[in-house]
Design brief:
Length: 267
């Protein structure tokens, strides 16, 4: 019984220490700090990109790179206004040459990738491509990487054990977080975090001067790929049936931001 009471106490303590709030006011489980998630993601990103480079899978098309980088830079500029501390992030985006992979992701600290399959199969407009990248950036702004690492660690190690490790074994925690960061590329996002990234992403894109309507047309194109097998993007980004309706309902609130951004750029 004393042992059980100790575990219960450690569990409750871990939960209390692990409370955080997302940009939308949602409570998050945080056994891993954002700084740790960023450091772990940097390590995982370097390793992942090295593997792609050695396999000859980093795209070298200058026109495509300019397009992706140009859109991403505009979004990063607006992200810095939403969260000024992200100006210090080492933002990066790489185009991965995998024609059959319809996917994109962003780790903590702004480490991003988009696959050529998404571009070649969806043929997105710049507005639609901006919605993809804005959605991924939104995951980073909302600290979803650290949250997902925390959930993964809590699931695999037990909340009490992880709670103790956070305080007493930071090197071990960092190593575990580095692994979790790598797995974040493949593990599905929760529907809650997806809805949050949709909400933040469509606003981020609108503020950068990209048409909010493209969020809906993007998902219409994504849904159209269903007959050819489930796209990788849909395995890591759950798509409830009401997703397009939810995004469509947000458009009227986003249009003034879009119009203001377009007017500013025209001037």
């Amino acid at each position: 019984m004393p042992h059980a009471r100790l575990l219960t106490t450690l569990l409750l303590t871990s939960l209390l220490l692990a409370c955080a709030t997302s940009p939308t006011g949602r409570h998050q489980l945080m056994l891993v700090s954002e700084d740790t998630a960023i450091a772990a993601s940097r390590t995982a990103y370097l390793s992942t990109m090295k593997e792609f480079a050695e396999a000859g899978k980093l795209n070298t098309d200058p026109a495509l790179q300019r397009r992706v980088q140009g859109i991403t830079d505009r979004l990063i500029g607006e992200a810095a206004k939403m969260r000024p501390d992200t100006r210090a992030w080492d933002w990066q985006v790489k185009v991965v040459d995998e024609p059959q992979t319809v996917n994109a992701w962003c780790m903590a600290g702004g480490k991003m990738a988009i696959y050529t399959g998404l571009i070649e199969k969806l043929h997105p407009s710049d507005d639609e491509l901006a919605q993809v990248m804005a959605h991924e950036i939104a995951h980073a702004l909302a600290n979803h990487s650290a949250e997902r690492m925390s959930v993964a660690m809590a699931t695999s190690l037990g909340l009490a054990a992880v709670g103790a490790a956070v305080d007493k074994h930071r090197d071990t925690t960092l190593a575990a977080a580095a692994l979790a960061a790598k797995l974040a590329i493949e593990l599905p996002n929760s529907r809650t975090s997806e809805a949050e990234a949709d909400r933040i992403g469509i606003e981020l894109a609108a503020r950068a001067g990209y048409d909010p309507h493209a969020a809906v047309t993007l998902w219409q194109k994504m849904a159209g790929l269903g007959g050819a097998g489930v796209p990788e993007f849909l395995s890591t980004h759950p798509a409830p049936k009401n997703r397009m309706q939810t995004l469509k309902a947000l458009i009227p609130r986003m249009m003034p931001l879009y119009e203001k951004a377009r007017t500013g750029r025209a001037g």
